[in-house]
Specification:
- By secondary structure, the chain is an all-alpha fold.
- It has one domain: Double Clp-N motif (Orthogonal Bundle), CATH 1.10.1780.10.
- Helix content is about 60%, strand content about 0%.
- The chain is built from 8 helices and no strands.
Length: about 140
């Protein structure tokens, strides 16, 4: 499943999984992925947010916080929620539409913005981050 994802996107999934375990969630949700994109200081995401004049720190403070305790995830898998699966399909469609071979963190951000049931979408749009602005920025070199 992850062969088409850029390394930075794979790293975001790893952190999202840890966030879901810390929350004792049964699923990896969109807000877990958004948190990982922001807390990881991903340069693409930060540049896209900067172009829309939105602070990653402001978005992070508005997200539900995960408990800070360490967690042993072991080998147990945690599945993606249906919401996140749809967001990933949107991310792939965005990469295809932009004729990008790899699905990167910017595409993941777009996927979250397109998923109507994503809590991350509401947070992003309320802060002033909109799909078209992110899409336009992805067309240009970051």
């Amino acid at each position: 499943m992850f062969e088409r994802f850029a390394d930075s996107a794979k790293q975001a999934f790893f952190v999202a999984r840890l966030n879901a375990f810390r929350d004792e969630s049964k699923f990896i949700e969109g807000h877990h992925l958004l948190h990982s994109l922001l807390v990881g200081q991903d340069p693409i995401v930060l540049a896209l947010l900067n172009r829309t004049q939105v602070s990653a720190d402001r978005l992070l403070s508005a997200l539900p916080s995960s408990p800070s305790r360490a967690v042993d995830t072991g080998d147990r898998e945690i599945p993606f929620s249906e919401e996140l699966k749809r967001a990933l399909a949107f991310a792939a469609a965005e990469a295809d539409g932009l004729k990008h071979a790899k699905i990167g963190t910017g595409h993941l951000l777009l996927g979250l913005l397109r998923e109507e049931e994503s809590a991350g979408r509401g947070l992003l749009t309320h802060a002033g981050v909109h799909s078209e602005a992110v899409r336009t920025a992805l067309r240009e070199p970051v």
